[in-house]
Structure formats: C-alpha cells, structure tokens
Amino acid sequence: MPDQAPRAAAPPRPYLFRGRPAADDWRLIREAQAPGDTPVILPLDQWLEAEPSDRCAPWLAADIELDPALAARLAEAPLIAIDFPKFTDGRGYSLARLLRERFGYRGEIRAIGDVLVDQLFFMTRCGFDGLSLREDQWLDDALRNLHIFSRAYQPAVDQPEPLFRRRQRDAAARREEAPLAAMA
Fold first, then answer.
1. Parallel, antiparallel or unpaired: strands 56-60 and 79-84
2. Could you give the CA distance from residue 77 to residue 72 in angstroms, rounded to a whole number?
3. What is the mean pLDDT of residues 104-131?
4. Are 161 and 155 in contact (CB under 8 A)?
5. What integer is the mean pLDDT of 71-81?
6. What is the pTM of this model?
7. Closest Cα partner for 74 from 93, 56, 92?
C-alpha cells in the first residue's frame, strides 16, 4: 500500500526584492480558484474580473499583447508578475521594459516561473524589482549574480545612459577641472 502520510508543503520559493532577501506574502494562483484571505497573484483574466484591491495582483503570460488600454488598467495593480514559462523565453524582459519605460509603471514588477540566478542581473536591468526564484535556486548564488558585472554598456531601465556617454561626460568634467587645478 502506498505511503499514506501527508506530503509536506513545498518549500517557499527564494524571493528577492530590490536586491535583498525578503518574505513573500503573496500567494501565486496559476489556475482559476477562489483567492482566500492572503494577498494573491491571479491570472490576468481572473484579475480583470475581480474587484480592485491592494491584496490582488495580476500575472501576465509571456505572450500577452500589452496595449495602452491594458497598461492603464494594470496601473491600478499593487504589483505585476510576469511569467517565465521557460528560462530560455525572453519575452518577459520586453514586457517589463515596456511597463517601466513606455507606460510608466512604478509598482513592483515580479519575475515568476522558471527564474534562474543566471538571469537576475539582466532582469533587474529591465525593470524587475521582485524576483521569485525557482525552488532549486539558492539565495547566496542569487545575491552574487545580481552584481556579476561591474558595469553595463547598454542603456536600460536601471541606467538609461550608455557607458560611452557616461565616459564622455566624465572626461569633459576632468578637462574642465584641470585648468582650475593648475590655477590653484
């Protein structure tokens, strides 16, 4: 006879918020079901039908078409989760950038799904500030990978100015300071 002992609850997914380990008070609901008493992240369709609440947030599938009308509705959400069905699916990066740069969303954007430590640096550059890692990922590795590169060349949400422009500005400032230092 198979083991009849109740299964232990799955360990909580490692979670980082703005670069630090944090408690995740939100419960992710993948399929339509009653929300309950805790704050919940619902599928977009279910969230759109629900009463607006600061205890209810949507998650977006990677293939969602983000238009101005939907973005305006999402502006009401306390957070927006973006699903990564596979770590190789990069559409979520584009969604986060669109939400931040084109539509001006300022709330939490959370990565959910198949989120690996290798992706974290790039996710934060695109505007994610909440990172719900896959269960087998370790927080120590995640914290190291957030700062795996000391500088980024390209412009992004976290640094809209490319590296060559920053260097040009710094060089110009040094040239302006040099004559002043010589006069002193």
1. parallel
2. 10
3. 95
4. yes
5. 96
6. 0.82
7. 56
Structure tokens at 170: 């710094």
Alpha-helical (H) ranges within 50-110 are 68-74, 91-97
For the chain, what is the mean pLDDT?
A: 87
For 13, the token pair is 């997914």
Q: Which residue has the tokens 């290798």?
A: 118
pLDDT-derived band at 180, boundaries 50, 70, 90: low
Answer whether 99's CB lies under 8 Å from 73's CB.
Answer: no
> In this structure, what token pair is assigned to residue 119?
């992706």
Amino acid at 43: P
The tokens 């989120």 sit on which residue?
A: 115
The SS3 call for residue 80 is strand
Tokens encoding 143: 């914290």
pLDDT for res 117: 93
